[in-house]
Amino acid sequence: MTTEPSARATNAPTVAEYLLSRLAAAGARHVFGVPGDYNLRLLDAVVDHPDLEWVGTANELNGAYAADGYARVGGFGVVLTTYGVGELSALNGLAGSFAEAVPVLHIVGSPATAVRQAGAPVHHSLLDGDMDHFVRALDEVTCASAVLTEETAAMEIDRVLSVVLERKRPGSISVPADLVDTPITLTASTPSAGAHLAAPVSALAESATAMLESARSVVVLVDHLARHGVTAELDALVGVKNVASAVTVAAKGLIDESAPGFLGVYVGGVSDEAVRSAVEDADVVIGVGLWWADLSSGGFTVKLDPARLIDVQPARVDVAGEIVDGLPMANALVTLGKILTDRAPLPVREALPAPFVEEPSPCGALTQSVFWERVQRFLRPGDIVVVDQGTSSYGLAPLRLPSGVDVIAQSLWASIGYALPAALGAQLAAGGKRRLVLVTGDGAAQMTIQELGAFFRRGLDPVVIVLNNDGYTVERAIRGPKAPYNDVAHWNWTALPAALGAPDGTSVHRVETTSELDKALAACEGAAGALAFVEVVLDRFDTPALLCRITESAARQNGA
Amino acid sequence: MTTEPSARATNAPTVAEYLLSRLAAAGARHVFGVPGDYNLRLLDAVVDHPDLEWVGTANELNGAYAADGYARVGGFGVVLTTYGVGELSALNGLAGSFAEAVPVLHIVGSPATAVRQAGAPVHHSLLDGDMDHFVRALDEVTCASAVLTEETAAMEIDRVLSVVLERKRPGSISVPADLVDTPITLTASTPSAGAHLAAPVSALAESATAMLESARSVVVLVDHLARHGVTAELDALVGVKNVASAVTVAAKGLIDESAPGFLGVYVGGVSDEAVRSAVEDADVVIGVGLWWADLSSGGFTVKLDPARLIDVQPARVDVAGEIVDGLPMANALVTLGKILTDRAPLPVREALPAPFVEEPSPCGALTQSVFWERVQRFLRPGDIVVVDQGTSSYGLAPLRLPSGVDVIAQSLWASIGYALPAALGAQLAAGGKRRLVLVTGDGAAQMTIQELGAFFRRGLDPVVIVLNNDGYTVERAIRGPKAPYNDVAHWNWTALPAALGAPDGTSVHRVETTSELDKALAACEGAAGALAFVEVVLDRFDTPALLCRITESAARQNGA
């Protein structure tokens, strides 16, 4: 026998094995993305990993959207692309994750270390010798990034991942192709000392107790920075007897809207009047994860009295001007909940009027208003609802969601086309155990339609509803209602599922009236286990009322 | 009559009018992109402009690809997006224009000046108060950029446009929404003094004459930096009697391949041997626009003797080490052509063997080799051929193109999915007067398929050929021939045109044999005036020979 050099001289894991084990430990079970020659070795490692599954998407932007949707349901998402072409294509998706505080890791398979150091003019580079153009572009939309080297790979992987998970923002790790199978140099990590929370808990109690004990009305107002890791604490807080609650448009689904204390959606001065006054006139508002943006604040028309506001941020609480630092959001919510539970019960609140009044005629043409009333009835506890920005997200906002419904929407970054790939990620994160209902517009769906094929490829069973209003109605509401630039190509929507791989017998419907819609939704109920597709034909100028109010406000601001 | 304030107090054009007039003066007749609320006023101005037409694309990456394809045919392209979501989505397209030296202007409709200055948390921003994240990302892939202000708008528009047109690289101009209708402050521009070219012309003649006069063989070797503005001068140079010529894979279509002196495609050490030796052993090689990249150089295996090389760059010539600066490429080519015309005729060259030897059996399954032989016969003088990176571009490379054929491909940046939207741009740039043949793979087509709808919407008539080899065969040639990550969703390709808006009676074909292909191509000939679609089923491991040779070389380098 000849002596062959051992393939692996050490028992240390390779860089790829180490990285993938960290992803799995952070809760990822799927990795989304597109192959490219700089990442193929890395993909071999993904395919070989016992706890990870590769989910190829049709392009990288869709992969980033899918990872974002996955993280919103599962807590953490991963997109993996190739250098240059792939990482730039994904960039808009990563930026959305940044704007909306979603922890996504972008892994880039990049040219070998020697090629990078030499600045060789390889494909997917700008051919100008500078190999760092794209990581600098990524740095604009991530909270941490690293280009791995042999010496620092373990440390850098740990650093980027911990920042991503801590700050709930996207990060990127670039893996030069030569390092994939290199044994990793492990650095002994010092376990971080447990935070000493007794002091800030006392400080918060001291600041907040008098305010909460004397209040006759308390509203918990939840915004999108409360998305991750505080579900149980939020549920407990809004469950305190006679505490009222409201959400921003960016926080739909974060609390139980079937609870008796739920008021509705608060959008500053363009809220329904009953909700607006209930929030703004409350003796105390406990804000949870508030981070106002134009669309969530009704064009910056929020009026919350700082003297009556307890503002709970991810690591800090502001109690009417007194700052308590170093307290995680979960602990702050528990502390405030305890004060409210221990005090004398809050007075009973007056009930608000029910949000829906529409009495649709079953034979007339469909309207947005009727459509959303039907969605209200169609939703079940535990559903995942994915809505694209535009008429879909603003149509959904006023609904009273059944308990346990997650809403996936990009309400603030507002990149249309997001919803369809995000639905792929969300459904995989739920392990196929929850029904998923996707509602998107025709203009939005055209942006990313290729990902519809992924649902058939993987045998997933969402209800896909395309609101066909013949163009960009969200833009028509702002400017150019009849301008040609708000039109889109005319597609034969009901022929699309079969073209993109739907099996024979797939439930596909086109509806123009209420009764047709009712039949189609009933058929969707019956199609569980397979994708069902409904094209809903709506008037091109029919716009949910909330969208009109918000876009008027935004248009004033942008000079549009 | 009441006295109303005049809508326009001055005769000066608005910022939008000025910008659009500059685009038209630079040769743009179409503007590609997607509406968004920050750019709607700008789009009103586009729609109103007598010389410009708005071409809405299904998403922004497609818009950037279309503008790039447009610029390759028409000399200059424009993509217009909204802030944040739109500009980041387009980034990969812009980067491709940078890497491959294509002059594209990216116009971004952005938040109003006051909003930007305040760092207000508006939609499509990262909500962190920094409004310059995206222009900094764009700066990584552009040669010039500007965010317009009222005072400097005219100057900045002129500056960015002139750099884009001069350097043949992309640039970006961000137009805050409030400036669109603002009268522009015109600065008197000093006409640039005509360059004094007599001295560098003499210097080049002095350096090059002896070398060219004593040569017994001269090869003109053309690469992609010769893409713009030197067609006539190149034609004249390669038309000199007994001068030989060759192109790189990135320069297909830049010279007349039907000329007797045409050798073929030079790819360094992976060239066909007859081409390699004819180029490398020539007494003098006149390089025109050489800028070697891994894929064009056969993995950096080019061997050109610097002592026998006249290297003509866009503004500089290197004659065997003697540098002549300040001479535009066109003037250099004229000067060199004159020397060759004035000298004693070059000796007759030996003819090279014909590149195609395949004798396909008409009944057997199709192969890549047979397919490309059929494409060779199908092409006509004056066609535009658009090929995606992968088996398409490398299948086309060895063909001998009829005269006047333009080739649109992203051979170096190599972003798959580019071809389909680029074909839209290319066909519009040609004013519908030239036949366009698009060849793309299934994996590539899935990336950007929504833009197929744009051809139907505009009544365009390309021949669209999708090579269905069931996945990413270009990646399979590199690694993971049977790995799941190189598979894609199974689509019903022949059902797609109808789903995306094809009129009844559209010519759609699926072919698996040579005779079926022949019938389909004959039908395409008959379908002129309307789009024809052909799905060509090929074996998943069948790869053009040149692609195998190049990817082997690239794989070695990347450690894949």
From TrEMBL, chains A, B:
Decarboxylates branched-chain and aromatic alpha-keto acids to aldehydes. Belongs to the TPP enzyme family. Residues 14-117 form the Thiamine pyrophosphate enzyme N-terminal TPP-binding domain. PANTHER family: PYRUVATE DECARBOXYLASE, PYRUVATE DECARBOXYLASE ISOZYME 1-RELATED. InterPro entries: DHS-like_NAD/FAD-binding_dom, PDC/IPDC-like, THDP-binding, Thiamin_PyroP_enz_cen_dom, Thiamin_PyroP_enz_TPP-bd_dom, TPP_enzyme_TPP-bd, TPP_PDC_IPDC, TPP_PYR_PDC_IPDC-like. It comes from Pseudonocardia alaniniphila. Signal peptide: none annotated. Its cofactor is a metal cation; thiamine diphosphate. Residues 206-320 form the Thiamine pyrophosphate enzyme central domain. This is Alpha-keto-acid decarboxylase. Coiled coil: none annotated. It holds the Pfam family TPP_enzyme_C. Residues 406-536 form the Thiamine pyrophosphate enzyme TPP-binding domain. Keywords: Decarboxylase, Lyase, Magnesium, Metal-binding, Thiamine pyrophosphate.
